[in-house]
Each structure stands twice: as structure tokens, then as C-alpha cells.
Design a protein that fits this description.
With 75 residues, the protein is an all-alpha fold. Helix content is 89%, strand content 0%. The protein starts with a helix and ends with a helix.
Amino acid sequence: MTLERQLALVDRVLGLEAELAERSAVSSLTPADQLSVEERLDRLQRSPSWRIGRLMTSPFRAVNRVRNSRRGHHE
């Protein structure tokens, strides 16, 4: 699997997470819709592509966590 494909899949998952958050904020999902979105997200997060993408982006996420924690201490 190419790096571009992996990053595209990670981007898609992030988009689905944002969609879920937006739907939750704007209106309540029906139980069936909520279950459908949760199942799609669960399938994506269990996929090898998701796991590889998370592994590849973990150094960047760690740097962001450190940076954000330092900002919180300085404000």
C-alpha cells in the first residue's frame, strides 16, 4: 500500500469523525444512523490501513501533545 493511499485513508477517517461530531452538534442522530456511523468508524479503525496510518503519524501526534501541553502551562 502506498503512502498516499494510507494518508488518504487516515484523512477519510478524520473526515468521518468530523462528520459524526458535526451531526451530533447540529441535531440528534436517529439510533439507526448513530449505529451506522459508529460501525463504519469501527471498521475503519480496525483496518490495517488505519493502524499503519496511526503508526506513521504517531511521532507528529506526540510532538503536538507536548507542544499543546506546554502552551497550556504558559497561558
